[in-house]
Amino acid sequence: MSGVGAPAVEANLDGLVGPTHNYAGLSPGNLASQTHFGALSNPRAAVLQGLAKMKLLADLGVPQFVLPPHDRPDFAFLRSLGFGGSDAQVNEAAWKTAPLLAGAAWSASAMWAANAATVTPSADSADGRVHLSAANLVANLHRSLEHPQTAAQLRTIFPDESHFAVHDALPSQPHLGDEGAANHVRLCAEHGAPGVNLFAYGRDAYVPWTHPFPARQTREASEAVARRHGAHRPVFLRQNPAAIAAGAFHNDVVCVGARTCLFYHQTAFEDPAAMRDKVRRAADGLFEPQFVEVSEAELPLADAIASYLFNSMLIEVPGEDRLVLIAPMDVAENPLAHAVAERIAASNGPIGRVQYVDVRESMRNGGGPACLRLRVVLTPAQLTAANPGYRLTDALHRRLTAWAEHHYRDRLTPADLIDPAMIRESREAMNALDDLLSRPAST
Fold first, then answer.
1. How far are the Cα atoms of 112, 116, 231, 373, 395 from residue 65, in angstroms, in the given order?
2. How far apart are CA 120 and CA 129, in angstroms?
3. Is residue 211 annotated as part of the catalytic site, yes or no?
């Protein structure tokens, strides 16, 4: 097992956008998803934008891994609902009689790797291993289909059980609704040092929820994940119902943290003062937390959600003494959000600069730079033990780019998914990807 406190880095595991990326409006409470329902998507641009972000991080010196898309459409799901015949017949019947179910079967939502799992690094776990729990995502039908394949992929990427423990999802029922790392933040003095694990939840499972948009994460699910991981110093914080009602369906829409810094909107938590007190007490003797709060007066919540300022990635770049905020281009184009980002970078605080990335295709479905990645803290031994075939190198980036340009459409609407040709195209793309990722790793 890995030694606690060993030198470590924070690696990113990014979801590779799938060939069926479309705007089917399947997520209530996700304003971007609802706004762009039925619009024309560009799967090729989406996957290339995601690959460009991965390449940027790898070039900055951050270890970068690829999480493959899921096989879509999910015919096992549709057949379990009574649709029969050939795959083409199943697809046609589903779209004709139950289009919402068909849309769920075709969804490429596994691209948002922040929802893939919750991660506890070895410095914080009871047995000194990295623990990863696949999220059940029961709040939305299309996402609830993901966790079996997600768990299998995580075991492929992190196969050595002496270093890694990959857990199946919690039982799939609403009392244990779990949305993964989108509702989790880890703070620490150094990545390999003991830290504080912040678990944000929307509701208590046994208390009626009367707000218009769902609170997807339950306290009971957060506690169960922390318990099964043996997570040290967990802090459970309730999301502000007003933020959920405004469209912050995950806490990472209004909050991001790294190292000792927690960057958040004033409305992110139900009781910000109590949050700060709990974090300080949990961190006592380890580090002094740095809170970077943005007020409603400076940046209205609506602008924070529209721009996804807080769905930026907050990363440690080798050779830089302050954190870097990897923000979506939408922040640069929103005057209020841009002013906040630039003010913070110009201050003497923990965030030293902002770098903007174009992930517009993901943004239109409600996923910014932080949604596309799962953070996994790894010691040098754990980094070596991870499957090298999934680590992004210049060579793998070139191969994935060529693969996407060959297999992905540049125009797609949900109606196009009725076309039997899309079944064939999706399978061909996934078969080619399996072959590509199984090749020996090269630099």
1. 14, 14, 24, 9, 13
2. 8
3. no
Give per-residue pLDDT as tens, 298-309.
999 999 999 999
- Has 188 been annotated as catalytic? no
How far is the C-alpha of 97 from the C-alpha of 415, rounded, in Å? 14
Question: Do the Cβ atoms of 303 and 334 come closer than 8 Å?
Answer: yes
Q: What is the structure's pLDDT at 26?
A: 61
Q: Is the pLDDT of residue 268 over 50?
A: yes
E-strand stretches of 255-334: 255-258, 261-265, 290-294, 313-315, 323-328
Q: Is residue 89 scored above 80 in pLDDT?
A: yes
Annotated catalytic residue, options 250, 265, 338, 407: 250
Residue type for position 357: V
Q: Which residue is catalytic, options 188, 255, 261, 371? A: 371
pLDDT exceeding 90 applies to what percent of the chain?
Answer: 88
Question: Which domains does the chain possess?
Answer: 9-72+107-437 (3.75.10.20)
Residue 67 has pLDDT above 90, yes or no: yes
Q: Confirm whether 371 is a catalytic residue.
A: yes
